[in-house]
Amino acid sequence: MSLEISSLITAFVMLFVVIDPIGLAPLYMTMTRGMRVEKRRKIAIRACVTSVGILTLFGLFGEAVLGFVGISMPAFRIAGGVLLFLTALEMLFDKRAKRRGDQAAEATADEDDDDPSIFPLATPLLAGPGSIATMILLVGQAETAMGVIAVHAVMISVILCAMLMFLASVPIERALGPTGINVLSRLLGMLLAALAIQFILDGFTNYTHSVF
Fold first, then answer.
1. Which of 16, 109, 163, 194 could be a cystine partner for 48, CB 3.0 to 4.6 Å?
2. Distances in Å between the alpha carbon of 45 and those of 57, 161, 163, 164, 184?
3. CA-closest candidate to residue 164, choices 47, 56, 58, 31
4. CB atoms inside a 10 Å sphere around CB 38
5. Would you place residue 111 in the very low, low, confident or very high pLDDT band (cuts 50, 70, 90)?
């Protein structure tokens, strides 16, 4: 991959489609529902910074990171899918909101440890199997060190788009109201469950292809 504008645009489109900042904004909104604006902002920033670090790590070292600990990419996809499915179940049955209410009765908001910034926002939603595999692919196609830097710059720009979408979700939540948020949470829970199953199926498919 050279530093041509067309190559950078292609990389941006690939990462934007895989990470899907627009689609993640409603998920962020439901996962941080009821939190103070300041805490939601911190969660958005922490999730985006963490995801940049993860994607940079895999972009620079690629499959060697997984190979070092004996983890294949199919296994990584399956594990991410299982963890994501558990989060989807919480959204479907509103366990997250109920748990947050119980915690609020026992502790202050600052002491609440129900923080989705690392999991599932940073990983596997922002820096998931798809985006990690895309980074490995794009960096593998880079022909020079400047090409590798350009790929990471494009990745950071996509994550910045996601952070902007996260921060813009607060006024959207106010417009929808509690009823709209509850309905949206259930719908997104179904979509998240389907995405988790897709991760698992992709992992099994990649595994069978590698074996047979």
1. 163
2. 18, 12, 7, 10, 23
3. 47
4. 10
5. very low
b/e sequence 118-150, b meaning 16+ C-beta within 10 Å: eebbbbbbbbbbbbbbbbbebbeebeeeebbeb
Which class for 116: exposed (0-12), middle (13-18), buried (19 or more C-beta within 10 A)?
Answer: buried
Contacts of 99 (CB under 8 A, 6+ apart): 114
- Which of helix, strand or coil describes residue 34? coil
pTM for the model stands at: 0.71
Residue 207 φ/ψ, nearest 5 degrees: -65, -45
Nearest to 183 by CA among 90, 85, 91: 91
First vs last C-alpha separation in the chain: 31
Burial class of residue 210 in the structure, from the number of CB atoms within 10 Å of its CB (0-12 exposed, 13-18 middle, 19+ buried)? exposed
Q: Is 211 exposed, middle or buried (0-12, 13-18, 19+ CB in 10 A)?
A: exposed
Rounded CA-CA distance 152/158 in Å is 10
| The predicted structure's pLDDT at residue 31 | 87
